[in-house]
Amino acid sequence: MVIDKKTQVLIVGAGPTGLAAANLLGLANVNTVVLEKNQGTSDIPKGIYIDDEFFRTLDMVGLADEVSEHCVSAAGVSYFSRLGFCVARVKGLITPNGYGNRSAIWQPELEKIMLRGVKRFASASVYFEQTLIGFDQDGSTVVAEVIDVHGVRQKIRADFVLGCDGGKSAVRKELGIEMDGRSYEQPWVVVDLLHDSDHSPFSKYFVNPSRPTDSIPAPFHGRRFEFMLLPGEDPDEMLEDRSLRRLFAPFRDFDQVEICRRAVYTFHSLFVKKMQVDRVFLLGDAAHLMPPFGASGMNSGHRDASNLCWKLVAVLRGLASLRLLSSYELERRKHTEATIDISVLLGRIVNSRSAVLTFFRDLVFWFLSRVPPFAGYINEMRYIPRAVIREGFVLRDEARPTETWVGRMLPQPEVSTANGTTTLLDVQLGKGFALLAINCPTFDFKAELCHRLWQALSVQGIHVVSADMQPPLFDSYLVPLDNRFDEIMRLHHGEVILLRPDRYIVGAVRPAELETLALNVERLLGV
C-alpha cells in the first residue's frame, strides 16, 4: 500500500473524533490522511449517545439523515428508587439546535457511516493497519513514521497532525504529555443486548444503593445494561454466565437475552496538561477522559474536532496565521473541565451506596423535579454545561449594558425564505463564515460584502427578520418560524452578528460599526 508522502493534515485514529475531523476537512477540500492501527472501524458499541451539537455537525457534512436511521432520537432518562418508584424523569427534547438533546446510537454503525462520509472526498484517504512509530517537528512540517502489518515502514510529511487515537494515545506518548486527574477503582460490568424486550426510548437508572444499575436504549431494539460491581466481586468472574444470570435476575430472564458484548470498565477523569505542541494537536480521548454519567465523552471529542478544523482550514488557505491555532486549547479547556466535573458529580449523586444518603437524595429530587423552576433545570438537563467562549476567536464587549449571545452557539430554528420555502437555518447558512443582519431592513449586504476581508473569507450575508417586520429593501431574507430564535431577535435587534463556521458567534455590532468589526477580526486572524 502506498501512502501519500505529503499531506496537509495527518489524523491518527479512525474513531468518531478522527472521522469527524476527516469529514470536516474533506468538506473543505483539505488534503487529509487518516491512519488507524486496527483492521477497520470499531465493532464494539462503546459510546452510546450523541448530542444535538454532534448531530448538527453531521448535518453540515451531509450524514445526519443516514445516522438518524440508526439511532433513538431525543432519548429521555428515568431514575427509579430502590422502592421502584420514579424519582425524576428527564424528558427527551428537541433543543434550540434543532436536534434531540441526546440520541442513542450504535457506535459501530455510526463509524461506518462516518467512514463512508470521508470516502466521498477526493482529498481524504483512510488507511487501516497502520501504526504510528514516531514523528519529528522541524517548525514548518511534521514528519511521521508509520509501519504496517507487514513490517513496511513509511514516512509521511504533514503540515499538521491530529492525535485522535484514544485513551492510550501514541501521539500523546510521543509528545511526552501527561494527564492530570484520577482513575476510579470502581468497576462496572457492561452488557449489550440485541432484540431486547424493552423498546422504550428512555434510559432507566435504578439508583438502588444495593447495586446501582443502568438500562440504556440502543437502536433496533437493543439495550445496554451497566451493573456496578460490589467490593470483593472479581471482575472476570462477574462476566461469566452464572454471575450475569444473578445480575439480570431483577430485570430479565437471562436465558432469553441475546448478548452481543460483555466487558468490565473502570472510569477515569483525566485531562492532558497541553492539547497542542506546535503543529501537533490532541483531540477526544487522547486529550481527556471522563466518566460516562454525563454522556459527554464522544461528544466532547466532536467539539474538539469542530473547534479546530475550521481554524486549520483558515491557516492552510493563508487566511490566518498560526497564532489562530492557539485558540483551540484556550476555547476548549474550560468547557471540557466543566464537563468532566459534572460527569464526576453526577456519578457520585446517582451511584451512591449509602442507604441514608440515597433516601434523602430521592426525596429531594422527587420534590425538585415537580416544582418550577427546578423542574425545568432537571427535566431538560440544564445541568449539563453548554460551551460559552469568553477567550479566543471571539469579540466580547464586557462593557455592553445588555446581555449578548456572543461566544455562544447560534440556535437553529426553522425558517421561511423569501420565496416561502421552509428549511432549518443551517441549510441557508452554508459551510463557512456568515453575517446575519437581525431586523435591519434598510441595510444593504451587497455593498458591505465587497469588503476585502468578507470576500477573502467567502462570508455569506443573510437577513433575518421578524414576521411583523418590514422585509429588507435590497436582499432576500429569512423569517424564524419557532421560538428558538426569540432571544437572539430580542437581544440583537438592529445588529449584525458574525458567525464562525462552527456556528459560534464571533461578535455583534450595529451596521455602521462593521468596518471596526472587520478590523478586529483581522487582528484575531493575525493577518
Main attributes?
alpha+beta; eight-stranded mixed beta sheet; 16 helices
Structure described in brief:
With about 525 residues, the chain is an alpha+beta fold. The protein is built from 16 helices and 26 strands.
Walkthrough of the structure:
- It is a single chain.
- By secondary structure, the chain is an alpha+beta fold.
- The protein has 16 helices and 26 strands.
- Helices cover 29% and strands 28% of the residues.
- Strands 1, 2, 8, 9, 10, 11, 17 and 18 form an 8-stranded mixed β-sheet that branches. An 8-stranded mixed β-sheet has the order 6-5-13-14-15-12-16-19. A 7-stranded mixed β-sheet has the order 21-20-24-23-22-25-26.
- β14 (213-218) and β15 (222-228) form a beta hairpin.
- α8 packs antiparallel against α9 (327-350).
- The protein is globular, with a radius of gyration of 24 Å.
| Low-confidence parts | none
In this structure, how is the largest beta sheet organized?
8 strands, mixed
Q: Could you say which overall geometry the principal axes of the C-alpha atoms support?
A: globular
How far apart lie the N and C ends? 40 Å
What is the element layout, followed by pairings?
Blueprint: E1 6-12, H1 16-27, E2 32-36, E3 49-51, H2 52-60, H3 64-68, E4 71-72, E5 76-80, E6 86-90, E7 102-105, H4 107-119, E8 124-128, E9 130-137, E10 142-148, E11 153-163, H5 170-175, E12 179-194, E13 202-206, E14 213-218, E15 222-228, H6 235-238, H7 241-248, E16 258-272, E17 276-277, E18 280-282, E19 288-289, H8 297-316, H9 327-350, H10 355-368, H11 374-379, E20 414-417, E21 422-424, H12 425-429, E22 434-438, H13 445-448, H14 452-456, E23 460-464, E24 477-480, H15 486-491, E25 495-499, E26 505-509, H16 514-525
Parallel strand pairs: 1-2, 1-11, 2-8, 5-13, 11-18, 22-23, 23-24
Antiparallel strand pairs: 3-7, 4-7, 5-6, 9-10, 10-11, 12-15, 12-16, 13-14, 14-15, 16-19, 17-18, 20-21, 20-24, 22-25, 25-26
Helix pairs in contact: 1-4, 1-8, 8-9
